[in-house]
Amino acid sequence: MILIVEDRDDQRRLWVDWLTHNGYVVRGVATGGEAIAAALDVTPQLVVIDLSLPDMTGFELVESIRPLGDFPIVGLAGSECGRLDHLGLAEVLREPINNAEMLAVADRLMPSVTPPKGCP
Questions:
Q1: Cis (ω within 30 of 0) for the bond into 96?
Q2: What pLDDT is stored for residue 80 in this prediction?
Q3: Which of 35, 38, 55, 83 has the most crowded Cβ, counting Cβ within 10 A?
Q4: DSSP run (H or E) holding 38
Q5: Sign of the dihedral defined by the CA atoms of residues 66, 72, 75, 76, in that order
Q6: In this structure, are residues 93 and 105 in contact, taking their beta carbons and an 8 Å threshold?
């Protein structure tokens, strides 16, 4: 399961729908608190975190979620973010991120999932 943590509803729904269409099981949440609850409920295989969230910073969320499992974490950062090496993220993507880029991240970090036939 891929956990998408993005506070912009339209963007989160778009990525959840796109990744689901391409064969992934995806859960989308809007806040850090929801992300922690989701990761406790079902351990994700990949977590994608917007590093600018309304209830906590992405940095705080990474520190809170890291002990919950051994899964890659991808950070989504705006141009205002500095060096993020200390977070131990699998990847950092600079926003904006389109559907193709999000799918490529899922394909790289979750290679055991095969998209259904007929999907791009």
A1: yes
A2: 53
A3: 35
A4: helix 32-41
A5: negative
A6: yes
pLDDT at 117 over 50: no
- The answer to whether 49 and 31 are in contact (CB under 8 A) is no
Q: What is the CATH number of the domain that holds 46?
A: 3.40.50.2300
Two structure tokens written together for 55: 């209830």
**Would you tell me the crossing angle of helices 58-65 and 32-41 to the nearest 10 degrees?**
20
The DSSP secondary-structure symbol of 55 reads S
The residue segments making up the domain with residue 15 are: 3-109
pTM for this model (two decimals): 0.86
Q: In what order do the strands lie in the sheet with 2-5?
A: 26-29, 2-5, 46-50, 73-77, 91-94
Residue of 18, 95, 86 lying closest to 49 (CA atoms): 95
